[in-house]
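I have been asked to look over a protein record a colleague put together. This is what I was given:
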Amino acid sequence: MPSDDIHAPDTTPSSIGAARRRGSFAVGDLVQLTDPRGKMHTITLAEGAAYHTHRGALPHDEIIGRPEGIVVTSSNGTSYLALRPILDDFVLAMPRGAQVIYPKDAARIVGLANLGAGARVAEAGVGSGALTCSLLRAVGDAGEVHSYERRPEFAQVATGNVEKWFGHRPANWALTIGDMARDLTQRDLDAVVLDMLAPWECLESVGAALAPGGVLVCYVATTTQMSRLVETMRVQGGWTEPRAEESLLRTWHLEGLAVRPDHRMNGHTAFLITARRLAPGTVLPPRKRRPAPGAYGEDYTGPGSERAAE
């Protein structure tokens, strides 16, 4: 039997929307310290504590009670810019149990899933909690996020990261240690996000959980996974024609007149496959677009083939 929650909900009255957004730094806040070389260090403020590096010590008390965007100096004279971290920076620096979904993909998933305030969404697996933070922020206090993770050690890391980012455990987040293929109990969901090795194993349970018109977004790393997932959805039926995409991110070097693309870029991380749930009993019209010759092998006689036309 799955465990519905690995931790009881935190009783802290804070909401997702109010979690450490603005105002003076306070005890318990996350602070991002940026050194002169541009390297970022994230600390949690504690009264009487100090941040120690080879560049000297920086007392937390010199930050507590002061506004964001200040410059503070360590004991050896090194200056640091102090700001609250944005989620992108937090994700890239968070402790990891599993590989995180990078910000460029998380933002696209939120858009593809059409998430907004009050939406109900499920995800599997939770990994290190990076996408979970984006989903919770997208649905707000009125929405629900149901996370499924097979491995307890990953769930533990994800819980710590989510609680660290929001400053409390969101009351509208349920984390289940179990297999979505058999343990998914929610119904009329607006969206489901799958980040797993074999997402096609969950299609039946996801189809039952999604409301008609609901969105399925799958995050897969390889072309073989993508092909098998798409063909399984087509054979199973009940889905709109799947579409696939990937996001590539390139930053730019900005120094005087030397304005050019950076030599390194965030290239392929994964493919995003998207489809929507059809109403019960609905069958899509046959595709009129013919597959490329040989796409399904010589023995293919399905829609669009020359043999089918005969």
Q: What stands out?
A: The mean pLDDT is 89. The CA atoms of residues 181 and 202 lie 4 Å apart.
